[in-house]
Write a structure and sequence with these properties.
alpha/beta, Nucleotidyltransferase, domain 5, 6-stranded mixed beta sheet, 116 residues
């Protein structure tokens, strides 16, 4: 299964429609396989992002806020969308792999986050 996370630096991007950076992680048997792939798009485009999600056979999308039409399109395509998540993307990924990430989750800051 593949997970796509909309990112802004080390954190989940606040808005799906303004995202120009994503991380794609392949997960097998509950573990990430290989190195996560970071992709920087030419410009923010929710339509291009939705197309990428379909082309890459993404099973789960983790993001911040998302417009209803994009949410409806992705879920219609049988893609799980975990939205309104706030925090660093690595913590969100770990929770998602463990099956413990839910829409609206606010992930706690870690000591390393405070050095920003």
């Amino acid at each position: 299964m593949k997970i796509l996370i909309t990112t802004q630096r080390d954190f989940i991007a606040q808005r799906f429609d303004l995202t120009a950076e994503v991380v794609i992680v392949t997960v097998e048997n509950g573990e990430p396989v290989g190195k996560p792939r970071a992709i920087i798009m030419d410009r923010p485009s929710p339509e291009d992002l939705c197309n990428m999600i379909i082309e890459e056979n993404i099973a789960t999308v983790i993001c911040g806020g998302i417009e209803d039409r994009h949410y409806q399109f992705l879920t219609w395509k049988k893609i799980q969308v975990i939205d309104y998540v706030i925090g660093d993307y690595e913590s969100a990924l770990k929770k998602a792999i463990a099956g413990k990430l839910s829409p609206g989750d606010l992930l706690p800051l870690t000591r390393s986050d405070l050095s920003l």
